[in-house]
Write a structure and sequence with these properties.
Helices cover 23% and strands 14% of the residues. The protein is α+β, with helices and mostly antiparallel strands. The strands form two sheets. It has a two-stranded antiparallel sheet with strand order 1-4. The two termini are 22 Å apart.
Length: 83
Amino acid sequence: MALFITDECINCDVCEPECPNEAISPGEEIYVIDPKLCTECVGHYDTPQCKEVCPVDCILVDPEHEETREQLMDKYEVLMAQG
């Protein structure tokens, strides 16, 4: 599944540089995660790095974008081939 950032985000800027897929960007009010780019760090790390550094635990699994670990790995491979 892709991740998303809740409205509890304090705009601390620590998650954006941690994302290896550049899926996190500033939104109008809070940071947002592009589900097309988010692989939950599959292919890069064992755990989502944005969740590791978030001081308020406002990054959750997005139930609207359910994906298996295999699907996330496939997405990772496509993203790496494009980059």
